[in-house]
Amino acid sequence: MRTGVARSGALSKEELEKHKVYPEQERLRRGPVAIIECIQEIPCDPCVYSCPQNAISLETLSALPKLDSEKCIGCALCVPSCPGLAIFIVDLTYSKEEALVHLPHEFLPVPKVGEAVDAVDREGRLRAQGKVLKVRADPKTDRTTVLTIAVPKHLALEVRGIRRRSR
Amino acid sequence: MEGDLIEETDLAIVGAGPAGLAASVETAKAGARTALIDENNRPGGQLFKQIHKFFGAKEHYAGVRGHDIGERLLAETRERGVQVHLDTVAFGLYDRTIGLMADQKTASLRAKRIILATGASENPLVFPGWTLPGVMGAGALQTMMNIHRVLPGRTVLMVGSGNVGLIVSYQLLQAGAEVAAVVEALPKIGGYGVHAAKIRRAGVPIMTSHTVAKAEGKARVKNVTICEIDERWRPINGSEQVLDVDLVCIAVGMAPLSELAWMAGCRFIYLTQLGGFVPMHNQEMETTISGLYVAGDLAGVEEASTAMEEGRLAGISASQSLGLVPEDAAQKSKQDIANRLLQLRGGPFGEGRLQAKELLTQAWIQR
Question: With b meaning 16 or more CB within 10 Å and e meaning fewer, what string describes B198-213?
Fold first, then answer.
């Protein structure tokens, strides 16, 4: 079985741990926070300039972005800024049963608020039914829609997209 | 330009892709009469097919979609008064004179300085069935899909997992097609993990150490057989899988489009990491033929962002050699661009290209 982002396209559990992609549990429990799934050194920096809290930093253009999760307020402005569509916001405080995931979406049709969507993981597997709570698409997101979906809490760190619908 | 008339200009640039456009902006800004020549009916090269947001830093237009960068560059060329000759083929280069053909008439354009920014062509992949309709290169597919809005297939096999293969797979999904799989002969995905992740979570399997064995169909592709290969690239018996696809897209790299540079008598160097034979050039982008410059994929296959920077560099160098840019201003601009190029070639994905460009510089010194 080939695993890892460079072999399958999906980040493995080991890669997520090794690169400390997730903030500490304690931080996750406190409120919405960004999760930057960028573990290869690519010359790229728009996320740094998208953040009004200055929570994202880079040592050099090709370094990996570092998130200061104490500064991050989970505003999601970084989500559409990433050309790699690799930034997500997770909010475990939404409700007792559900968490929110804010994710970038560039397919048509764009789902509407209130709609049920098929929530998929990094490997494209259907994991749950999600509900669309917010759809952000304005000139600033430049055609990268930011969807906010509610999913079962235990899947918040796994759901990373929604299944495309036929047009 | 008409008949056999010989026209004269300060700067002639062949190829109006990202490198040529950026070069023309610089030369026109410096005050050089600039003619920009392209065989296509619209400028921009591959830039207008790129609907994704670019990587890089702000100075490299990071976060802006490729076609929007194209629009910005075009607006600049218009503002600066660049003469753009479209539907015009540069068929020959004789010393400082370019042979042109437009409207079935030939003309000659004599220029004090010439910048070649002819780009690259895609590498073919030969396998049983490769001539069937429904087997096409990623460039053609992008032209049909993103420029003309025609989807040439519903279910696609992508061959090659470099950034082009990954990005075009994503664009196919955006256009409403299905991508049955991406096959990659190497044991590792060639392009950025983040591009791979986008299509993976959209359900596309990316199969490393796999290749296309054959495509079958009568009038067009009906199915394709893929198989696993071992570390010596031999097909593994029993690993064959048949996929029902009506389109096989080939994205296995590019090679510099170097005919004019060969014709001009430039010296070449073979560098695998830059796509093959590349005209030798110095850090000012000047070739072994004095007054003849290269930029973009012709000077080594890289990305649109590097092509634009190299175009600017060639434009400034050529203008400076005509005495149009003050020495210190030119030095500063060239240094800034060199720094930005260094940044763009940073990290593991740029390493090979950076080393190859350094080899080029050494070869230049020792020539």
Answer: bbbbbbbbbbbbbbbb
| Banded pLDDT at A2 (limits 50, 70, 90) | confident
A139 C-beta neighbours (distance < 10 Å), count: 6
- Angle at B235 (CA atoms; ends B234, B238), nearest 5 degrees: 145
pTM of the model: 0.96
In A, which residues are within 8 Å of B345 by CB distance? 43
Sign of CA dihedral B201, B207, B212, B218: negative
Q: What is the pLDDT of residues A108-146, one digit of tens each?
A: 999 999 999 999 999 999 999 999 999 999 999 999 999
Instruction: List residues bridging with B249 in a β-sheet.
Output: B136, B158
pLDDT tens, position by position, B45-81:
999 999 999 999 988 899 999 999 999 999 999 999 9
Task: For A82-92, write each residue's pLDDT tens digit.
Answer: 999 999 999 99
Q: Do B194 and A85 touch (CB under 8 A)?
A: yes
Closest partner residue to B201 (CB to CB) among A42, A44, A160 is A160
Task: Kindly tell me the burial class for residue A74, based on how many C-beta atoms sit within 10 Å of its own C-beta (0-12, 13-18, 19 or more).
Answer: buried
Side chain identity, residue B45: G
Interface confidence (ipTM) of the complex: 0.97
- Structure tokens, B145: 């899909």
pLDDT digits (tens, 9 = 90+) for A17-28: 999 999 999 999
Q: Enter the tokens of residue A56.
A: 């994202």
Confirm if B163 and B191 have CB atoms less than 8 A apart.
yes
Mean pLDDT of all residues in B110-137: 98
Q: Which pLDDT score is estimated for A75?
A: 97
How far B69 CA lies from chain A's nearest CA (Å)?
A: 13
- Specify the DSSP class assigned to residue B89: E
Give residue B72's identity as a one-letter amino acid code.
R
Q: CA B120, CA B223: separation in Å to the nearest integer?
A: 30
Name the residue with tokens 């050699």. B321
CB-facing half-sphere around the CA of B80: CA atoms within 13 A: 24
Q: Which residue of A has its CA nearest to B208?
A: A7
* pLDDT at residue B4, as a whole number: 65
Q: How far is A64 from chain B (nearest CA, A)?
A: 10
State the alpha helices, DSSP H only, in chain B: 18-29, 66-80, 138-142, 163-174, 193-201, 259-264, 304-321, 327-344, 348-365
Task: Write out the H or E segment, with its range, that includes residue B216.
Answer: strand B210-216
Q: What is the pLDDT of residue A166?
A: 78
Q: How far apart are CA A108 and CA A144, in angstroms?
A: 11
DSSP A28-89: HHHS-EEEE---S--SB-HHHHH-TT--EE-SSTTSPPEE-TTT-----TTGGG-TT--EEE
**Which residues in chain B have Cβ-Cβ distances shorter than 8 Å to A36?**
none
Token pair, residue A87, equals 């930034």
Query: How far apart, in Å, do the first and last CA atoms of chain B sit?
Result: 38
pLDDT band at A1 (very low <50, low <70, confident <90, very high): low
Task: Give the residue ranges of DSSP H helices in A51-152.
Answer: none
